[in-house]
Write a sequence for this structure.
């Protein structure tokens, strides 16, 4: 499993109610998008980073590693806003720096919101939440099974890859490509085989088409929700008044 | 005594005509621990899949309480309510995000309320001694833990018969000992156990009865020490007698152990025998 997934399962706020985490992350996200970027966005970014790093005790290195890729996109986007091509060369766009800084701040705040949710809440919790919120059960079940299969297939693929490498299947670009093709081609029948056995296993436990399990439902605490609401209200006031 | 579950001249061929079962007879008596013992590739898994209706025989019958089973939806559900199956690969069975969620799947399918299901989950995790793993993600478990979680999923349905496909395969000796003691506890509580294995020592140390399996047929079924002391039978099934049994039989032949005395069944008993001989 990926480090991000592991921390989602083991962080300090793993057992906190999904509603609390979602209201915090999505509420802040809406504010980041809706309010003028200054001063709201930097505040939101700091609050959400602190929530993940201090509140949920997500390791800083992991948080940074997960933030790097979106931050890269963000920089490229901001750069292209800040400068313009005027035939002969680059020049500072009119109002460009201001626009770029606003975009960067806003996106950074959004990234912090989503990272918080992704690193404190396992995928399965999110899907269960969506199911309770009205996503059709079939969709949620298929997504959950896909999530589970992802890990199984990744394991098989890694083993096959190692086996290929051990027999010099990765020497040279051509052979490497050929090995990759073989691996992918072999993964499909294995996945189907696995699915068939899973079906036998499920049927043995009385499966009739619905994957119902007892999922833990941590009740949201009203004081916590109130605190989150107050915090978001504060950011809203800050954004509107300043 | 009538058998709880019986197979009569079962035949089964996989697509492509590869025969897996060729006229197999088997009888499962209530409250016993039965080992289906045979070399790899003898068709043991195929047999287990027949015993809970996952596969249909091309010829032959399966009798539950002496009655031929039917394969309708309701009949299959009633059948699987009584007979649990644990696959060899735990990963083929664990589908839910956490151990407790996965174990709750069977009880909920039985139509139990959420409270009852939660009780069953706690009971099953307790029986397998993995209560501390309840909230662990299924893909974060070790091999042995996955195995126990998969068994808990079947145990939570309180089956009369628990079918286990190679329960000790891939487990280290410590985990095997742990698993066997858990299974013994289930057996003592009244669950009939049927498991496949190619390990003669395990079969001898753990099972009451043995069905010797080869080439899609049961060569012989009977008490463990009777079957395992028949060299010709074992040879036919491409197996060797268990060492502890050989030791006991040799002690008898040499006049060191009276015919009336029990043969050692485990390493501990064999060592005790040596102690007793010296004294």
């Amino acid at each position: 499993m990926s480090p991000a997934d592991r921390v989602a399962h083991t962080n300090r706020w793993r057992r906190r109610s999904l509603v609390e985490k979602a209201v915090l992350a999505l509420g802040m996200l809406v504010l980041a998008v809706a309010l003028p970027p200054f001063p709201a966005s930097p505040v939101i970014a700091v609050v959400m980073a602190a929530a993940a790093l201090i509140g949920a005790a997500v390791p800083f290195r992991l948080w940074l590693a997960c933030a790097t890729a979106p931050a890269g996109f963000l920089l490229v986007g901001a750069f292209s806003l800040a400068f313009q091509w005027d035939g002969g060369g680059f020049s500072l766009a009119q109002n460009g720096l201001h626009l770029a800084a606003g975009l960067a701040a806003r996106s950074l705040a959004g990234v912090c919101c989503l990272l918080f949710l992704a690193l404190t809440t396992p995928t399965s919790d999110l899907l269960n939440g969506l199911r309770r919120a009205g996503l059709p059960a079939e969709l949620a079940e298929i997504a959950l099974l896909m999530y589970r299969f992802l890990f199984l297939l990744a394991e098989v693929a890694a083993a096959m890859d190692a086996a290929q490498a051990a027999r010099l299947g990765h020497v040279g670009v051509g052979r490497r490509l050929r090995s990759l093709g073989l691996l992918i081609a072999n993964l499909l029948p294995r996945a189907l085989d696995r699915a068939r056995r899973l079906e036998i296993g499920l049927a043995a436990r009385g499966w009739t088409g619905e994957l119902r399990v007892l999922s833990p439902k941590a009740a949201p605490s009203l004081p916590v929700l109130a605190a989150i609401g107050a915090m978001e209200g504060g950011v809203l006031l800050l954004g509107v008044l300043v | 005594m009538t058998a709880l579950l019986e197979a009569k001249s079962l035949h089964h061929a996989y697509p492509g005509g590869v025969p897996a079962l060729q006229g197999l007879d088997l009888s499962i008596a209530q409250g016993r621990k039965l080992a289906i013992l045979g070399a790899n590739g003898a068709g043991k898994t195929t047999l287990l899949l027949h015993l809970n209706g996952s596969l249909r025989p091309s010829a032959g019958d399966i009798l539950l309480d002496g009655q031929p089973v039917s394969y309708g939806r309701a009949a299959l559900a009633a059948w699987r309510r009584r007979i649990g199956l644990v696959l060899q690969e735990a990963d083929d069975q664990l589908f839910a995000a956490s151990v407790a969620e996965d174990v709750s799947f069977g009880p909920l399918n039985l139509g139990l309320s959420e409270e009852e299901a939660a009780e069953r989950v706690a009971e099953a995790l307790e029986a397998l001694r993995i209560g501390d793993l309840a909230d662990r993600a299924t893909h974060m478990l070790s091999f042995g833990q996955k195995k126990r979680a998969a068994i808990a999923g079947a145990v939570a349905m309180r089956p009369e018969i628990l079918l286990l496909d190679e329960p000790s395969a891939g487990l280290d000796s410590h985990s095997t000992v742990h698993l066997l003691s858990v299974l013994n506890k289930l057996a003592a509580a009244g669950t009939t156990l049927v498991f496949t294995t190619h390990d003669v020592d395990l079969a001898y140390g753990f099972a009451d009865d043995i069905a010797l399996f080869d080439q899609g047929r049961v060569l012989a079924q009977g008490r463990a020490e009777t079957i395992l002391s028949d060299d010709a039978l074992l040879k036919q099934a491409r197996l060797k007698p268990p060492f502890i049994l050989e030791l006991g039989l040799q002690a008898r032949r040499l006049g060191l152990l009276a015919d009336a005395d029990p043969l050692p069944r485990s390493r501990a008993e064999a060592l005790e025998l040596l102690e007793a001989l010296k004294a």
